[in-house]
Amino acid sequence: MRIWQWISIALIGLTISCKQKPAEKEVSLLEYGVPLTLHVPEDAQVKHSQLSFEEDITISNGKDFNMQIFISPVTTTDKQKLLQQNIEEIKQHPYFSEIVEQNPEGFIYKMLIDSTPSYGFRLVHVMGDREITFRESLMGTFSREQIDQMYATAKAALKNQ
Asked: Are 131 and 15 in contact (CB under 8 A)?
């Protein structure tokens, strides 16, 4: 092997090993009455709005991270029933393609819009007398990687509560 090939291999290896995780910050939802902390992109902004019977917390950096958290009075304490209701709601969407991942906390799904894939997620949690639903924002389309990041953020917040 020529010396330039060894140098190229070394540089590629160095580049891969030096790839850094994007900067993050902690966002506490305690001021909204929810004892959860999320690790989100450093440039993300938090917006809160009170709707008639539910709260909407949107955490977005305007690029690849755009998560909504809906907090409403609990309709049932059966988490699996809540999850199934969310799945049925998604399946009714005209662009629904498939559930690509599902676990007891939530699911990731795929939509096909003009044959272009877009992904979304739902993660449901019952906390006392409140139902908390994490999801992607309605604004924009998201890749599987972007949804995986938002889903992991929501799961980690619940795991660390």
From this structure: no
